[in-house]
Every structure is written in structure tokens, then in C-alpha cells.
Amino acid sequence: MSRTLAAEGGGLSITGSNLTYVIIAAVIALVALGFAAALVRAVLATGKGTTKMQEIAGAVQEGASAYLLRQFRTLGVFVVIAVVLLFVLPVHGDSDNETMVKIGRSAFFVVGALFSAFIGGAGMALATRANLRVAAAARASEGGREAAMQIAFRTGGVVGFLTVGLGLFGACLVVLLYEGDAPTVLEGFGFGAALLAMFMRVGGGIFTKAADVGADLVGKVEQGIPRTTRATPPPSPTTSVTTWVTAPAWPPTCSSRTR
User: Fold this and answer.
1) Any stretches that span the bilayer, and where are they (predicted)?
2) Fewest CB within 10 angstroms: 41, 110, 115, 254, which?
3) What Å distances lie between residue 40 and 32, 74, 160, CA to CA?
4) 89 in Cβ contact with 62 (< 8 Å)
């Protein structure tokens, strides 16, 4: 069985064996997602520390979720506009069914954006919960440092596996469904992942700086507390908001995987 993946300026023939490689890549993507799920269970199974620690972590989680949901509502407007533009703009090269290719490009733009949003949201949700568990593990008198490092690395591994798994699975799905028109549809998939990741990263960076400046003003100007002393409050909100922007900043890697 032979399938042709046409690219602008030439064609790349995908024979039966090459199609097998695509299927193997999809299986690898599913395995990566399975590893991510296993790491999530391992992280969440660890201790959560004292009641006071859980109360503080709950406040951080609530603020992080509110920020991310508000950002997603704003980004939804840009996603709708981009979907319309991708459908209106012409496709590259000669296609037997240009309308279906445009629909696929727009649809997989949404898929890429959803994958990117899921990675950022899942990364933030797990990071705000893992922070509590890392602190709780580090309090142990023996082996606390090693346990805390293990939880932290597993948390980062979840986002890494999700990025590779979803990016690779989406690309394989496009190739299997659209064959010769896959390069055009992949443009939409990669653009969707990159666009949402860029907005999350830039918007989160602005929000982080605003929180940093606000915390400094409260501590130094209103309360008269030098920033270098142990009594200064800014490290807490600054660290919390840094988590809010760092976690959603991971999805840009997803867009690079789809290229």
C-alpha cells in the first residue's frame, strides 16, 4: 500500500513500511502520555504536609486557576479570529479538495491550541500541588532532600511527556488523515499550539512583573520593610505568581515538536 505526502515543490512517497513508522510514532506518543499519567499519580500520592501548609497551597491553587481561566477566556477571542482567517486564506500547492483542507487546517489549529492549553493548565495545576508536596517532603529529617528532588523532577517530567506525547500524536493523526495535504494541515496545528503558548507566556510575564512591583511597593513603601530582610512579604506572592507564569510557559515546546 502506498500513500503520498505531497509537499510544495515536490512529493514525499510514504510506502507501507513508512506508514508503519507513523503508527509506531503514534504508539510512542501514547506511551509518553501513559508515563505522564503514572507520574501524576506518583506525585499526588505523596504527603501534603500540615494543615496550615495545605491552607496556603489552597489559596495559591485558587489564584492560579482564576488567573488561567480568565486568560483562556480572553484568548478564546483570538482563537476564533484565527480559525476564520485560516479558513479564508488559500492553501499552498494543488489540492483536489481545497475546502476540506481549509476545514482541516482550521480544525487542527483548534486542536493544537487545545493541546497547548491543556499542557499549560495541567502543568500549572500539578505545579501548585507539587510545591506543597515538595515542601512537605523536604521537612523530613532523613532523606528529605532526595524525596523533595524526586517529586520536583517527576512534576517536570509530567509536562515533558505531555508535550512530546500530544505534539507527536497530533502530528501523526494529521499525516494519517490528510496524507498528501498533511503539510498544509500541520501548519494550522503548529500555529495553534504556538499562538496560545505565546499569549500565555507574554501575558503571564506581564502579570508576574505587576505582582512583583506591587509586592515591593507594599513591603517597602507602605510597611517600610526592606526587601533584604527575612520579614519582607514579597517572596510569597512573587514566588506564587512566578509559578503561574512558568507553568503555562512550557507549551512552546509543543509547537516546536509539531514543526
Assistant:
1) 20-44, 75-92, 107-130, 151-178, 184-202
2) 41
3) 12, 29, 12
4) no
Distance CA 98, CA 108 (A): 15
Task: Note the pLDDT tens digit of each residue in 175-232.
Answer: 888 877 888 899 899 999 988 888 877 776 676 677 667 766 776 666 666 665 655 5
Q: Is the CB of residue 219 less than 8 Å from the CB of residue 207? A: no
Assessment of whether the complete model's pTM goes beyond 0.85: no
DSSP assignment letter at 223 = S
Q: Where are the alpha helices (DSSP H) in 45-140?
A: 51-88, 98-138
Identify whether the C-beta of residue 248 lies closer than 8 Å to the C-beta of residue 157.
no
Give the DSSP letter string of 142-170: SSHHHHHHHHHHHHHHHHHHHHHHHHHHH
Between CA 89 and CA 77 the distance in angstroms is 19
How far is CA 233 from each of CA 10, 227, 237, rounded to the nearest angstrom? 61, 8, 8
